[in-house]
Write a structure and sequence with these properties.
Elements: E1 2-12, E2 20-29, E3 32-38, E4 46-49, E5 53-57, E6 59-61, H1 82-93, H2 98-113, E7 117-124, H3 134-145, E8 148-155, H4 174-188, E9 200-203, H5 211-224, E10 227-232, H6 236-246, H7 250-256, E11 264-268, H8 274-282, E12 286-289, H9 291-296, H10 304-310, E13 313-316, H11 329-344, H12 351-365, E14 383-387, H13 400-406, E15 414-417, E16 420-424, E17 427-428, H14 433-448
Parallel strand pairs: 1-4, 1-5, 6-7, 7-8, 8-9, 9-10, 10-11, 11-12, 12-13
Antiparallel strand pairs: 1-2, 2-3, 5-14, 14-15, 15-16, 16-17
Length: 453
């Protein structure tokens, strides 16, 4: 089917020349962009008028924990640091079941989609004893939403009794982790161009898995040619933990266990020095920058300006909804800009820098930039559009691209994923959404042992 998006006021392509077009159109055939041009476009079987909009590539979210959308703004840890926050919430998270994973995944995805996200990953590392198939549940949820999904098979093998943070009930043996990782790769991983589902492997962090688990996972990723992901250098406490337990700082420890390679991308990377940055760049590692989470937990300010200057692959991420409390990628883009500027000056990053992190940058981190992350011929039709005639954008049209970051467009008015419309007139296309929200609140209340409002 031929679809034409026409009368686009401003089009941010993120192509090789980083072209920004006025009065543009996009021709899409069977989910793939056939042509991008200016002026009057050709007729299509379906024509969508985007006059009064700025259009960008769909945003790519590079780190999340969907299930945490059930645990937003938990009052007991609203002002806690990461380690204390984790220890408290593990006791709630260990009660999760398949329905909780399915419902919270749809909620988390739809929330991101409402702000322009078309591709996301997720790190699901909780696998309570006796409850199987959590990754399968979130994959089924993702399929129903239509998002392009790159889940990671998270894992924890180091429990509290062995010097880690999680309780025994949510950790698994290394054998079980590897067996299930193989199962998920062989069942779901799609190597084809324009894939809607791919699998990566993700031991949770240096303080929740053994060194043997890290090594075995890296070897498995090489065997099956899949990506690797973990949290790294998020807090000063983690830095101290690694030195105390491993005798090495986090990046050096990753080097020891074979994780500094082009398959790997790391969430946070706050506590780095120049040598760390050089090692990461030399080994072509990627970064999921989580500015809101880093502020929320008081973790620190990642050296993003320096990593960008060094040539690192950088994407943005909303992180889990209980360490951010929001899945709004527009807010993440803005916070990425502001957080660097507050420490390093007004010229630390530009609005276009952070917009690139959220689109092409994220696609590069997930190694999907051959088919998403930009609007150009041959790429998948992953597209977001934002209205320019809103109250908060009024007076900001001298540079609508910068205004998308500096002002407040509130949310996406239109989202297309793989050529299919998923948000129209600012609304998620899912008639079951009100009931889904109701069920999310019921499950959340039960897990937190409170009564829903």
């Amino acid at each position: 089917m031929k679809t034409v998006l026409k009368n686009i006021d401003y089009l941010v392509t993120m192509n090789e020349k980083r072209e920004e077009l006025r009065d543009a159109y996009i021709v899409i055939v069977d989910g793939v962009i056939e042509k991008v041009g200016v002026g009057i476009g050709p007729a299509g079987e379906v024509e969508i008028d985007l006059k009064g909009h700025i259009v960008t590539p769909g945003f790519v979210n590079t780190h999340h924990h969907f299930y945490q959308s059930l645990f937003r703004s938990v009052k007991e840890v609203a002002s806690a640091k990461l380690f204390d926050w984790l220890v408290f919430l593990y006791e709630k998270w260990k009660k999760l079941d398949g329905e909780a994973i399915f419902v919270s995944s749809k909620i988390a995805i739809y929330e991101m989609m409402a702000s322009g996200v078309t591709t996301t990953t997720d790190m699901l590392y909780l696998h309570p004893a006796g409850r199987e198939g959590f990754i399968d549940s979130e994959i089924e949820a993702a399929k129903e939403t239509g998002v392009r999904f790159h889940p990671t098979r998270g894992s924890m093998s180091l429990s509290r009794k062995d010097g880690g943070l999680p309780p025994d009930s949510v950790v698994q043996s290394e054998r079980k982790i590897i067996e299930d990782s193989v199962r998920l790769i062989e069942k779901y991983h799609d190597r084809r161009r324009n894939a809607m589902i791919r699998i990566a492997l993700a031991p949770c962090s240096p303080f929740s898995v053994t060194g043997e688990s890290m090594i075995a996972t890296a070897q498995l990723a090489e065997k099956y040619d899949v990506l690797l992901h973990t949290h790294l250098a998020e807090t000063k406490d983690e830095d101290d933990f690694c030195i105390q337990k491993k005798g090495l700082r986090p990046v050096d420890y990753m080097e020891k266990v074979g994780w500094l390679n082009r398959r790997a991308w790391f969430a946070h990377l706050v506590w780095l020095n120049e040598k760390d940055i050089s090692k990461l760049v030399e080994n072509d590692c990627g970064m999921a920058h989580c500015p809101t989470s880093n502020m929320r937990l008081g973790s620190g300010i990642a050296p993003v300006k320096e990593m960008k200057a060094a040539g690192m692959r950088i994407g943005l991420a909303v992180d889990g909804s209980s360490s951010n409390d929001s899945g709004n990628m527009l807010l993440e883009i803005r916070n990425a800009l502001m957080l660097q500027r507050v420490l390093k000056g007004a010229d630390a990053l530009s609005p276009r820098d952070v917009l690139e992190f959220a689109t092409l940058g994220g696609a590069k981190v997930l190694r999907m930039d051959d088919f998403t992350g930009s609007i150009e011929k041959g790429k998948a039709a992953d597209i977001a559009a934002f209205r320019l005639d809103t109250l908060s954008m009024a007076g900001g049209l001298s540079d609508p691209v910068a205004s998308l970051v500096l002002c407040d467009p509130h949310g996406s008015d239109f989202v297309m994923i793989n050529g299919k419309v998923r948000v129209q007139n600012g609304r998620i296309i899912d008639s079951d959404l009100p009931e889904l929200i109701k069920r999310q609140n019921q499950i959340s209340a039960k897990l937190l042992e409170t009564s829903p409002a």
